[in-house]
Amino acid sequence: MNCRKPVALCFCSLLRPFESKPEFVILIHRDEILKSVATGRMSHLSLTNSLFFKGTDFTHHEGVNKIIHDPNIFPVLLYPSFGATNLSELSSEKRSAFFPSDKRLVLFIIDATWGVSKRMRRLSQNLASLPAVCFTPPSKSRFIVRRQPHPKCYSTIESIHHIIELFNEGGETRHRNLIDILDVMVAQQLFFENETRQRRRACR
């Protein structure tokens, strides 16, 4: 099982892998891999052209630096920081014109808690030097099984889904499978959490 989850929680049968535009490089913190409801690996398994690297400081990471310095790639960091370009505020024409047409757009996305992601960005000098982009979440996060600083703080898989949506207005719909998988995982987690609470009450 690629998802590495117990049989009862396996979502592999729901995967509909596809090649995304733009492309994504998912940088996951080692602690996040161990969590049962992390969405970084789920995203990677869904995107056939994504890359998935583990670590904390990527300053000297060979794979990351190879992408950043590739002359055929325009690398950006998806991160809601001061000075980041808000893609939601651009028209589809301006969004397309914002990136060089002769290069592949590749977005780096940090998969960690909000506090840890700030540290990872600060430590990774190569990431901190990249142009940053962000978006305005159109609705509350569906990832309700993890506590977030704000209801509109999106998970990795929701963020990737929304970026693809912004660049594929009226086009492909395959990326919606990302949300379908997330919804199933959240429902499963809520079910098992409720079962656990009921068993504990019964034992009192």
Which percent bin holds the helix content? Answer: 25-40%
Spans of 5+ residues with little confidence (pLDDT < 50)?
A: none
Question: How far apart are the first and last residues' alpha carbons, in Å?
Answer: 37 Å
Look at the helices and sheets and give the structural class: alpha/beta
Mean pLDDT, to the nearest integer, reads: 87
Plain-language structure description:
- This protein is of the alpha/beta class and 204 residues long.
- The protein has one domain (7-202).
- Helices cover 38% and strands 14% of the residues.
- The protein contains 8 helices and 6 strands, in the order βααβαββαβααβαα.
- It has helices at 30-33, 40-46, 62-68, 92-98, 114-123, 125-128, 156-167, 177-202; strands spanning 23-28, 51-54, 73-78, 85-86, 104-111, 132-134.
- It has a 6-stranded parallel beta sheet, sandwiched between helices.
- The N and C termini lie far apart (37 Å).
